Amino acid sequence: MLNEKWLLSLAVLLVGLWLMGLLYEEDAMRMLAGK
């Protein structure tokens, strides 16, 4: 049970980092396009 909760937390963390990466990449592209 504890292992399942740990895996779920890890999955949520990875998804969160992935979404942040997409947003950061999009902002970087906008900055490059602006220049």
How would you summarize what this structure contains?
Keywords: Membrane, Transmembrane, Transmembrane helix. The protein has 1 helix and no strands. The chain has 35 residues and is an all-alpha fold.
Write up what this structure looks like:
Keywords: Membrane, Transmembrane, Transmembrane helix. The chain crosses the membrane at residues 6-24. With 35 residues, the chain is an all-alpha fold. The chain is 94% helix and 0% strand. It has one helix at residues 2-34.
Helices and strands in order, then pairings?
Layout: H1 2-34
What key phrases describe this protein's structure?
transmembrane, membrane, 1 helix, mainly alpha, transmembrane helix
Roughly what percent helix?
Answer: over 70%
- Rounded mean pLDDT score: 91
Distance between the termini: 51 Å
pLDDT below 50 for ≥5 consecutive residues: which ranges?
Answer: none
- Biggest β-sheet strands, sense, barrel: none
C-alpha-based Rg, rounded:
15 Å
Q: Total number of β-strand segments?
A: 0
Strand content: under 5%
Oligomer: single chain
Number of helices: 1
Taken from the alpha-carbon principal axes, the silhouette is rod-shaped
Please state the structural category. mainly alpha
Secondary-structure element string: H
Keywords: Membrane, Transmembrane, Transmembrane helix
